[in-house]
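Our consortium's second objective concerns turning raw sequence data into structural hypotheses that experimental partners can test. To show how far this objective has progressed, the report includes one record in full. It was chosen at random from the queue rather than selected for favorable results. The single chain below, 87 residues long, was entered without modification.
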Amino acid sequence: MTKTLADIKKSLDHHLGKRLQLKANGGRKKTIERAGVLRETYHAVFVIDLDQDENSFERVSYSYADVLTEAVEITIFDEANNLIVVK
């Protein structure tokens, strides 16, 4: 199934406020893993509030193109911390 940037945004819009874990390409064979809450979606980016006990900064943002090109992989959890979506 072909995904578009609009499809990715719509999917993330349905999961606002839910916990997630993401893996991002950090370059030079580095992978960054972070956990937090999907806080907001904008026209071109989405914002994640990070868990403060694991990170030195409060939030990060990524573009929908990062998800489309698989530079960022998102795993979203429901209220019982069961895996519900893997992008």
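The partners drew two points from this record. The radius of gyration is 12 Å. The beta strands are 19-27, 30-41, 45-50, 59-63, 72-77, 83-86. Both points have been shared with the crystallography group to help prioritize constructs.
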